[in-house]
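Why does residue order matter? Because the sequence determines the fold. Keep that principle in mind as you read this record.
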Amino acid sequence: MSRIIVVTSGKGGVGKTTCTANLGMALAQRGHKVAVVDADFGLRNLDLLLGLENRIVYTAVEVLAGECRLEQALVRDKRQPNLVLLPAAQNRTKDSVSPEQMKKLVNALTKVFSYILISSKSEFIFIVL
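Structure:
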């Protein structure tokens, strides 16, 4: 059974993304299969903290639009094979992905990963997963 952890706060700049990156890496180093999801649409930076910014081809928005498969959007870390990143689109607003669409993405990830860690925008509201 997968564990879904959403790292959120009502305020920006408090370390949500840093916490998500570090927790994801620690779990992966312990042998767990981990997907980290950047849900800060328009202002993503989880890719930067993980050193994966130059490896992004597709994002969650393209997956939802049917432009690619989920597997194609997952960015694998060559240094840590147990960790993948699902990046947010850099040029979209927080309204680009609805809570129902986020639920669909997360449910697909639970079929493969032990932990799904979501770094959310401060005002992003999730429905119960």
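The radius of gyration is 13 Å.
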